[in-house]
Amino acid sequence: METRQNIRVTQSQRLQLNLGLQASIRVLKADAEGLTRYLEEQAAENPHLLLHPARPEAGDWLPRWESALGGGGLDPDLAASAGPSLMAHVVERIAAMGLRGDALRVAELLAEALEPAGWLGRSLTEIAAEAGVPVAQVEQVLRRLQSIEPAGLFARSLSECLLLQAVEAGQDSPVLRGVLENLPLMATGDAERLARALGVAVDAVQDCFRTIRRFDPKPGAQFSAFSAPVREPDIVARRHVEGWVVSLNRSSLPAMSVSAGRGGGRGAARAVIRLVESRNATLLRVGTEVLRRQEAALDHGLAALVPLTMTEVAEGLGLHESTVSRIVAGTSVDTPKGTLWLRNLFSGRIGSGTLSAAAVRAKLADLVNAEDRRAPLTDEALAAVLSGEGAAIARRTVAKYREMLGLPPAHRRRILR
User: Fold this and answer.
1) What are the DSSP calls for 108-132, one per residue?
2) Cβ distance 61 to 249 under 8 Å?
3) How far is CA 23 from the centre of its chain?
């Protein structure tokens, strides 16, 4: 049998990511913290890429302190995004402490006085009077409860909340305590004036600014499935006279520049800067479009979320859906209702109506948060209430959403008297 050799020319396609495309995807997916680490890596490899610490200025984002500092208490909107599972978390930790008698009664009263943001909503004098014990005993129990994670729970003021976190992180110092005692002055961003008041160097105050801004002024809010941990958000949404205005958070990233002169490495440094600027422009476009479509949620809370998909946003902006998916991954937006994950503003539709699944989950969280802890609502009762909102909600759907929110069933939410 004779064999023949044939040469065939075929054509095939293969996608191979070059280094530039890989870097572009990494930058596009990174949040502020991840992008800062990337820039630090690039600056370490390329000495011509210069990074400068972001210095807070008047008007820059601050961790929701303008509301906390204003009236000596919590803004109601500040607590709106908090989830109801905070109480379950605290009750579980108190039970593990093995408290008895008056100490247990005081601990229960302190837990009941806990605001959704994690602060105490009553004075120790009032709690001592109700429990029939000295104020000193309430203070002793309070110190034990302040050890419950996350640090900052059961604080009586914003400065105490932040100080508890500084102590837990091992970053407590006389200068930091001085800054915490002058939070209204810090809120103005005037580091030089604060440095003069404390008699220290401006750089030391700036270091404290950066340290404090990593802390969470409302640690209780992280128990909500919708709230993002309070940190440096990527974008900020604020209502002005002309409507909602979305802007980048300038203080979340270091400033960048290229060293003077000529030579190798400067072109690569400029490429990195262009990459970051392109990412910021895309983030601002996507964030603005998402929030424009979800203005009702900005005005009235997450229960007003409308159905929205990434495909709809991508088509509206002329982008690919994968670009939208990458840019919203890990991205947070600071709003008057709290700091939210941008990804959580997307939601599918319930049935054929206009109600979104995210809105149903938010309403479920509100119902559980407002329920009587001595007679909590069952899944059947919750389904009946939610079905009156315009869409038929099955009991098993309620159970699924409740588990997604981290909420225990009714019998575990009950508090016995």
Assistant:
1) HHHHHTB-TTSBB-S-HHHHHHHHT
2) yes
3) 26
Q: Does residue 219 contact residue 153 with C-beta atoms inside 8 Å?
A: yes
Q: CA–CA separation, 365 vs 361, rounded Å?
A: 6
Strand partners, 256: 51
Distances (CA, A) of 345 to 49, 65, 332: 36, 24, 11
What pTM value is reported for the model?
0.58
C-alpha dihedral (93, 95, 101, 107), degrees to nearest 10: 30
- The pair of three-digit structure tokens given for residue 259, joined into one six-digit string: 């060293």
Per-residue pLDDT of the chain (417 residues; tens, 9 = 90+): 566 666 666 665 554 445 667 777 778 877 777 888 888 888 888 888 888 876 555 455 555 554 444 443 333 333 333 344 577 778 778 888 888 888 888 988 888 888 777 888 888 888 888 888 999 999 999 999 998 888 889 998 888 988 998 888 888 888 888 888 888 778 777 788 888 888 888 888 888 888 888 788 878 876 654 555 556 788 888 888 888 889 888 777 888 899 887 777 888 889 899 999 999 999 999 999 999 999 988 888 777 888 888 999 999 999 999 889 889 887 888 887 777 888 888 888 776 667 788 888 888 888 887 888 788 888 888 888 888 766 788 888 888 888 877 778 888 777 655
Q: Residue 37, exposed/middle/buried by CB under 10 A (0-12, 13-18, 19+)? A: exposed
End-to-end CA distance of the chain: 95
Helix, strand and coil in the chain, % to nearest 5 = 55, 10, 40
CA distances from 314 to 85, 155, 279, 328, 374 (A): 35, 43, 15, 12, 47
Cβ pair 27, 329 in contact under 8 A:
no
Structure token pair of residue 55: 């210095």
Using H for helix, E for strand and C for coil, what is the string for 315-332?
HHHCCCHHHHHHHHCCCE
Portions of the chain given CATH number 1.10.10.60 = 357-413
Class of domain 357-413: mainly alpha
